[in-house]
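A note from the maintainers: we've had questions about how concatenated examples are separated. There is no special marker in the raw files; a new sequence line simply starts the next protein. For clarity in this README we add a label.
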Amino acid sequence: MDVLLLLFAAIALGGLVFLPWMRRRKAVQHAERGLTVAADPMAGYGFVPLEELDVRLPGPDEDLADALAEMHRTHDWRPAAELLRSTGDDWELRWQRVQTLAGAAAFELAQTPPDPATPSGTRAGGIWLRTWRAEAPKDPGGAQTHAQFLAVQALRDPGSQDFRMILEEARTVCHEAALLAPGSPIPYITELAVARGLGERPADYEELWSKVRQRAPHHMGAHLAALPYWSEQWQGSREQAEGFAGRAAAGAPPKSLLPALPLFAVYAHLPEANMVRSLFQSAVVERAIEGAHFALREAPADHPMAPHVRHLLVWFLVRAERYAEAMEQLRLVDGHVGAVPWSYGRSPAAEYAAYRALAIAGWEQLGGTSTGFRA
């Protein structure tokens, strides 16, 4: 698989929704110590080999993968535009696709050296996005992707002298995108990250959040985008983040993934050292794990955000030594690893594979076999 398509998921999916939690990186690095990947952890289990793991997405999306491949080959924006048109108002799926398209453009830009032929030495990477905006300025999909791209560009380097300028531009494009598709929550979800980066006051952030809720009150991706603002790494605290997640879970309608939100709140506030087994077997963590299990049982199997929940659940279940449950989640999610917590590290695929190997080892230590797993 092309290196470009293999690597940009860390920007696409980790870059905006989860970048505010990058302080968790130390916890992941701590977890890596002592983790070793078995020589052949896939033997008999049907798992995808390490070198074939797809870091672009948390789960399969064949239409998106096809569009990305065509755009990479031709540098044409039309496959992206058609993909978003066909997505329509499936807001969860649209949000994930907009993030991935924006992340692809950001990664291409970062990987392309400056062009010495231009006066300013500009980069040609992601040219399809600029062409899309120039040739179809009224296309809401292009505006949404552009706004997300700018937010990703800013949030990946908060120390840049252009940080606030890029975020202000992203906010302007969010407003343009909102005018092009008044009923869509997507521009407002992107603006949640923009407002967080700009340090908006809680009252102003609440007002923005109300605009999201008016359009998609139970949107899982939107709640994940809003949660970091209320976390201690940004404008809130552990109590505020857990309160936000708890209220969303308690008010969730049937077949919603929101009961899994407390698991993300717990993850955002784990101590960065001494993550002993007892911590993962505590009442708080156990309740969050059970909430995630419940959400996955109740929500549609093809919910676009379900793989995000499953990946984080694998991490917690392995830490809690609940290996049989971890193996069941691996059965459902294996093959794609573009999600937290793997996207925090230097090698998402290797980190995922390390936890997968631990789950297999624990499963077999408890008497499990590959034959029993595949039965």
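[label: protein 2]
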Amino acid sequence: MPASTEAPTRVGAVSPASATSAAVDSRLTPGGPGYRRMSFALFLAGVATFALLYSTQALLPLISGEFGVAASEASWTVAAATGGLALFVLPMSALSERFGRRTVMTASLAVAVTVGLLVPFAPSLTALVVLRAVQGAALAGLPASATAYLAEEVRPKALVTAIGLFVAGNSVGGMSGRVITGWVAQEWGWRAAVGVIGAIAVACAVAFRLLLPAPKHFVAGSLRPRVLLGTVRAHLGDPLLRRLYAIGALFMTVFGGVYTVIGYRLTEAPFSLPQGIVGSIFLVYLVGTVSASTAGRLVGRLGRRGALYAAGGTTATGLLLSLAGSLPLVLLGLVLITSGFFAGHAVASSAVSKTATHGRAQASALYQSAYYIGSSAGSTVGALAFHAGGWTGTVGVGLLAVLGVVSITVLGTRAARAEQRLATV
């Protein structure tokens, strides 16, 4: 990939928050110059990120078969990738504060796609898990840097929509990765399937770097540990940000658990579906693409907390429907789970970017860290619950997580009302 030509504004330059109206007006807006290129570039980055991150999820029954391991052991090929991302997202966000969002995103994709081309040759489950952990750590430079880039380069009124499009790219990547791997694996095995995903990710990475506009509002920060820790403490000390981080983690606990285990459920009786059909089940991610990209309108109608209640209720309804022994009802349940999850994720992640007035990359990184910790926890706990109690056990874990989302949102509603009462005194 070509070297970055990003030329960040140095420390001491005028920040976007204090810029003149002319500088604010130069931010990207729907229909304006550069907005479409930016949206498509980050959409492709989202596609590559989720396609690589979850490339083994639909293939877990095949991986279990080749290495002779249970679902709970094979699930580590997913948990290691999301765990690596969760651990490294904060350090990578710090690098993006110093060297620029575009530079870090480009480097992260370059390393991740290189590892992706090595994954098909893993000689053992242990080697596969290690490669997946490295791949997840490399991908850590994408999520927080992308949302920080959008917060700096896009006008505030268009931010939810812009982040929703990035999240929509995530959903397309997750869907296409699973559908493609399902059909390829049915004919040529799981190794060929993850190899194809690696090649697709290379194409996305090259197009991303060529299309993404150079930033105009980036202000370089410091890499000094004391400054970074101070920023992190400030974000963790904000009650609203803490609630948003917990909500992201809980939503992803549901999603990670459901989609890690669903392949096992559908390949077993009473459904006994072939691998290609199981992979095609992930076409329901298209619903997530729509719900994420329309999250801005949902917030406009219901408010942020109302949108989170709606997302939680939709997810819970889907979990309950998925308990049915009828395949159409199971599919409807997956549609609702996916719709609720992506809407909730888009609302929460955009709220983080709006709430943070400084250190946006760190604020987004903390959200992404919590989010992917939730994914790792969901993958592992969901698989263990499935081993212990079947699909009912996995659904039980998901319902507990949704209850947590609703409870935290209720606390936020009460806190907001208390602030309003104090303001009127």
